[in-house]
Design a protein that fits this description.
By secondary structure, this protein is an alpha+beta fold. It has one domain (37-288): Fumarylacetoacetase-like, C-terminal domain (Fumarylacetoacetate hydrolase, domain 2), CATH 3.90.850.10. It is built from nine helices and 15 strands. A six-stranded mixed beta sheet has the order 2-1-13-6-7-10. Strands 4-15-14-11-12 form a five-stranded mixed beta sheet, with no helix packed on it. A two-stranded parallel sheet has the order 3-9.
Length: 290
């Protein structure tokens, strides 16, 4: 691309460069490039909580009772689609969550009205993301910020796929997949979402200003390492002191082999089954912090 843009926001504003690239002019083969995140920091990173019906059920909740809720991640957690995911020394339970990221294309001040007709104005494009999570940090603190914000905890890319209004209407056809060491762990379409992008942006506009280049993660389907204990165990645990409850929970989770460890290879991909829309495939390797 012939552009002076150095940020995602500047690139999205450089329509002539985008149009020229779309016309198929000569460029540099992707194979010759070391890919970085197509979403640049600093930016806002906002994520939806338990937004897939299958994931809500797996974590012990009821999809029809799920609330539209969000949390923030630091933009310092953004990394490239082939960068190592660094596991901090104090983290024991490292989890994965393949998600579709919405890249904001138009300023969305608090109070903005977002409709089906202008949704594609606010969503410039989509990216593959992995919401890496330190469960043993996240859960006892009852807040997500730290446990999901360590450096490299948001791999993004490989591509920022710009969509027009008709393509965006196929959002629910997108299939999310994640593999660990070649084993398929997550596989579901966005039709399993409880609150799709229109509902998410309408909810955000009540309190959150967003700018071009900001990133909104839209939730993950069933298949993460963590899952809820059986109902009888949950009932018994609810009667225990908080410290004892978490100690027993994490003792059980420590036996779960699905949590990520040094050397594990995580691959995540999002595409429609017919291949008409393909966000690409990222491949990252987990490394213990040195």
């Amino acid at each position: 691309m012939d552009t002076r843009a150095t940020t995602t926001a500047q690139l999205l504003a450089d329509r002539p460069a985008i149009a020229t690239a779309a016309a198929g002019t000569d460029g540099v083969p992707v194979e010759d490039l070391a890919l970085i995140s197509p979403v640049t920091a600093p930016c806002r990173v906002v994520a939806q909580m338990t937004n897939f019906a299958s994931h809500v059920t797996d974590t012990g909740g009821k999809p029809d009772a799920a609330q539209l809720a969000f949390f923030r991640k630091t933009s310092g957690s953004i990394s490239g689609p082939h960068d190592d995911v660094i596991k901090p020394a104090h983290v024991r339970l490292l989890d994965y969550e393949v998600e579709i990221g919405l890249v904001i294309g138009k300023a969305m001040p608090v109070g903005s009205t977002v409709t089906e007709d202008d949704l594609s104005d606010y969503i410039a494009g989509l990216v593959v993301t992995n919401d890496v999570s330190a469960r043993d940090i996240q859960l006892p603190k009852t807040q997500y910020y730290e446990g999901k914000s360590y450096p490299t905890f948001t791999p993004v890319g490989p591509a920022l796929v710009l969509l027009d209004a008709d393509e965006l209407k196929r959002f629910t056809d997108l299939r999310l997949k994640l593999w660990v060491n070649g084993e398929l762990r997550q596989d579901a379409t966005a039709s399993d979402m409880i609150y799709p992008p229109l509902a998410a942006l309408r909810g955000l506009t009540r309190f959150q200003h967003l700018d071009p280049g900001d990133l909104v993660l839209t939730g993950t389907p069933v298949g993460t390492a963590i899952s809820a204990p059986p109902k009888p165990v949950q009932v018994i645990a609810s009667l225990l002191p908080e410290q004892v409850k978490w100690k027993l929970f994490f003792r059980g989770q420590a036996k779960n082999p699905k949590y990520l460890a040094d050397g594990d290879v995580v691959e995540a991909a999002v595409a429609t089954d017919d291949g008409a829309i393909d966000l690409g495939r990222q491949r990252t390797t987990v490394r213990d912090a040195r």
